[in-house]
Amino acid sequence: MPSLGERLAHLRNQRGLSQAELARLLHMGQSTIAMYEKNRRSPDNQSLKRLADFFGVSTDYLLGRTDRPYGTGEEGAPGNAPHDAKLYAVAADPLFAGLLRQVPDLTEEEKQSLVEHWEWALRFIKKERERRGKRKEGNQKG
Q1: How far is CA 109 from CA 105, 112, 113, in A?
Q2: Cα–Cα distance measured from residue 50 to residue 105, given in angstroms and rounded to the nearest whole number
Q3: Using one digit for the tens of pLDDT, what is the confidence trace for 23-32?
Q4: HSE of 103 in the Cβ direction (CA atoms, 13 Å)?
Q5: Cα–Cα 20 to 30 A to 45, which of 89, 109, 123, 130?
Q6: CB 92, CB 111: distance < 8 Å
Q7: Rg of the chain in Å (alpha carbons)
Q8: What value, to the nearest 5°, has the Cα angle with vertex 58 and ends 96 and 76?
Q9: How confident is the model over 28-64, as pLDDT tens digits?
Q10: What SUPFAM superfamilies would the database entry show (predicted)?
Q11: What is the reported pTM?
């Protein structure tokens, strides 16, 4: 079975990330990622969880205990790992990263307000897409 380092390098390359980019996204040192990938150092439990969450795989998969990246679907297993990967992709997007870093500093009331604004914006975007789609269909018919 592949080692943690091999799996980590493979997952990182699948995402098209350099070691430095991955390190920045996870708030780790680039040399730390390099040491993990060369199997010269093992991540502590917290770092292992962060890596698994970032890539949307189970810690057992990273450790080479299973070849099934997403767990078993049992209680506590990351059966929703593909959704976690989407979440991390949004968090890693430079357009959103700075905004998302500010969320923990908000009160619950401010967070609720943010959610309401976000939902409004998404509804607006959806309507605009529909409007453009209808206009495009009309132009194609005429």
Answers
A1: 12, 5, 6
A2: 21
A3: 988 999 999 9
A4: 13
A5: 89
A6: no
A7: 20
A8: 95
A9: 999 999 999 999 999 999 999 999 988 888 899 999 8
A10: lambda repressor-like DNA-binding domains
A11: 0.53
